[in-house]
Design goal:
7 strands, 144 residues
């Protein structure tokens, strides 16, 4: 059974993110504190009461766009609709808070995340090119 909880404590989310192979560089608690000062949403997904994934966002642009900063599902819990449920909950919460759009970035090398966004109603609105094309950032946005 999947349960999604909103929390103000990012410790569980940070512990999950540290176990996700795609996030090789890691994140510090200080970086979380700095980014999440403006209308943060922190969601944790539990699969049979085991922390399985998370999604974190905040008001990055000081406008009607909510920024979905980080998210992921542990490899052993993938393909169980957890990412979709996290995304849906973040969209619902952002809409209730008055945002009109939700936006995220992914790297060109993360094809599954790009496909996930496109399958779930996001549109590509920009590209931040990098010397190594696989590291280029693709910006996706969806109307709430």
């Amino acid at each position: 059974m999947i349960k999604i909880e909103e929390t103000s404590n990012f410790d569980v989310a940070l512990a999950i993110l540290k176990q996700i192979p795609e996030f090789s560089s890691g994140f510090s608690a200080e970086e979380f504190e700095n980014r999440l000062q403006n209308d943060a949403i922190i969601l944790v997904a539990y699969f049979n009461d085991i922390p399985a994934g998370c999604k974190i966002g905040y008001n990055r642009f000081d406008n009607s766009i909510f920024y979905s900063w980080l998210g992921g599902v542990l490899p052993e819990f993938r393909r169980k609709e957890i990412a979709k449920k996290l995304s849906e909950k973040m969209e619902q919460t952002a809409k209730k808070r008055g945002y009109e759009f939700i936006q995220f970035k992914t790297r060109n090398k993360f094809k599954n995340m790009l496909l996930f966004g496109l399958k779930n109603g996001f549109q590509i609105i920009g590209l931040i090119p990098q010397e190594n094309n696989l590291e280029s950032r693709i910006i996706l946005q969806k109307k709430l």
